[in-house]
Write a sequence for this structure.
């Protein structure tokens, strides 16, 4: 099997870049799996694509693996789709239709106009977020299968005009899905309201952002409908005041969430008998100071915890919560964005490690407290210190050698970790950690090049994709892989040549890799 040509755009390259690219292609062709070659394929010119394509698409088992690969480039999946359509390979089509990375033009190939689409494939295509409008239109107009129409209603990318076609069929089991879909227009919502007395459908109509204005002016009889009305951002304040006194606590809780609920109604909700209502009131950023005073002494732990984290709680009022008997409340004080420095110092010595860990995450932590927490032995505290941008590099180097993986991972997430610290973590036994090191902006491309023999297929694929974009002759027109973290690219001439004496020929991982946390199951 031979792949079809893919539209490409060439770019100028230096002799060093061309030499390194050729070496990269040879490494991919010699690899035991196909994922490195798949990462390079979108960035290759015609000659290299011929060679890589022979490695990628010659065997059906490799095509099946690529079709299920969620980190495969769209250009690769498009070729697999052409092969699936040409060979009428239903198994290959199903795998592509399940893959969220399959681009729209490839999905269109799976539904040839001269073929009858299998119901299972039609459902997958109807639900796919990348399915093109023409394909969805054909499925909406021609399909009589309830499962296919249900899949269309569950697809967030379906436009309003197709939902109108589905609604005109009058299928009761699809009405609630139509009422939920954000693309459903006001006229369709009004039709749904008139054509059903099902409370679940009407509740979704009332909650919809495009709900007709006329439906928001009266109180419905159903609790579910009143709850949706209380959550609706366009509900009138007078209606919300009535809903705030509803007998159903779920309705009162919804009214407490609504930004348009009048202040007088909120005052009543502060003393609601149900804790779930008071907890929601405590999350509001427009709380009056009098309400904050009432809530500080509330008997419910979650109300005090929510209030302590709320920016509406004045920093000086946190004095009454810093010695709370519940550690979760003290932790919330530690995470308050404007917690006073004096209280931060008090909480840094808290007997509960979880509270101290909250302090360790604060970016405004004074240097003296940072040094004190560096001596802590708790894993959560050390993980916070390892991520702190002000942690000294010598301390980060010690944490990079910590026995617990969570602490080492936090070092890789520290934006200020230097190259010297990061180099300690290139041999991490966990693939996720190695990818985080590879993506760190303070690592150089020369360092990344030395990680090219990573044993994990997705980690290796990301590495090859990065160098494909950097060294490859072609900018592919298809959708790219998920973007890596911001990567600082070194001068292309700084890449070590694989035959240079100072460039290691193979990167060994001393400890065996544990259960693969990067590969899809």
């Amino acid at each position: 099997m031979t792949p079809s040509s893919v539209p490409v755009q060439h770019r100028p390259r230096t002799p060093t870049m061309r030499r390194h690219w050729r070496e990269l292609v040879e490494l991919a062709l010699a690899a035991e799996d196909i994922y490195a070659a798949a990462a390079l394929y979108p960035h290759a010119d015609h000659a290299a694509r011929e060679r890589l394509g022979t490695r990628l698409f010659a065997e059906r088992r490799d095509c099946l693996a690529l079709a299920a690969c969620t980190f495969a480039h769209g250009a690769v999946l498009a070729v697999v789709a052409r092969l699936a359509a040409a060979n009428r390979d239903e198994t290959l089509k199903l795998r592509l239709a399940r893959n969220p990375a399959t681009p729209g033009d490839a999905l269109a190939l799976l539904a040839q106009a001269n073929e009858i689409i299998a119901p299972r494939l039609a459902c997958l295509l109807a639900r796919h977020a990348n399915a093109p409008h023409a394909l969805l239109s054909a499925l909406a107009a021609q399909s009589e299968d309830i499962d296919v129409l249900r899949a269309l209603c569950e697809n967030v990318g379906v436009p309003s005009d197709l939902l109108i076609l589905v609604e005109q069929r009058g299928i009761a089991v699809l009405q609630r899905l139509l009422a939920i879909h954000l693309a459903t227009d006001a006229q369709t919502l009004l039709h749904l309201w008139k054509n059903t007395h099902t409370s679940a459908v009407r509740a979704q109509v009332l909650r919809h952002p495009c709900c007709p204005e006329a439906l928001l002016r009266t109180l419905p009889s159903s609790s579910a409908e009143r709850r949706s009305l209380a959550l609706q951002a366009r509900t009138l304040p007078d209606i919300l005041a009535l809903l705030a006194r509803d007998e159903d606590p779920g309705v009162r809780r919804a009214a407490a969430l609504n930004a348009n609920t009048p202040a007088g109604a909120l005052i009543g909700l502060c003393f609601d008998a149900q804790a779930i209502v008071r907890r929601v009131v405590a999350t509001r950023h427009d709380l009056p100071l009098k309400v904050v005073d009432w809530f500080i002494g509330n008997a419910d732990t979650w109300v005090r915890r929510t209030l302590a984290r709320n920016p509406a709680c004045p920093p000086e009022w946190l004095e009454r919560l810093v010695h709370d008997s519940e550690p979760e409340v003290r932790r919330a004080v530690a995470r308050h964005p404007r917690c006073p420095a004096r209280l931060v110092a008090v909480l840094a010595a808290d007997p509960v490690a979880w509270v101290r860990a909250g302090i360790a995450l604060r970016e405004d932590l004074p240097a003296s407290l940072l040094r004190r927490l560096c001596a802590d032995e708790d894993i959560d505290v050390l993980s916070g210190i390892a991520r702190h941008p002000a942690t000294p590099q010598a301390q980060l180097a010690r944490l990079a050698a910590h026995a617990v993986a969570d602490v080492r991972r936090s070092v890789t997430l520290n934006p200020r970790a230097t190259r010297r610290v990061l180099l300690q973590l290139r041999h991490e036994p966990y693939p996720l950690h190695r990818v985080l090191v590879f993506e760190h902006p303070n690592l150089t491309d020369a360092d990344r090049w030395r990680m090219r023999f990573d044993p994990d297929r997705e980690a290796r694929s990301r590495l090859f994709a990065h160098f494909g974009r950097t060294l490859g002759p072609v900018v592919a027109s298809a959708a790219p892989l998920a973007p890596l973290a911001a990567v600082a690219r070194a001068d292309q001439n700084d890449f070590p040549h694989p035959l240079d004496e100072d460039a290691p020929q193979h990167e060994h991982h001393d400890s065996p890799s544990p259960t693969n946390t990067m590969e899809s199951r």
In short: The CA atoms of residues 249 and 274 lie 7 Å apart. Confidence is low (pLDDT under 50) at residues 1-6, 478-521. The two ends are 27 Å apart (CA to CA). Residues 217-284 form one domain.
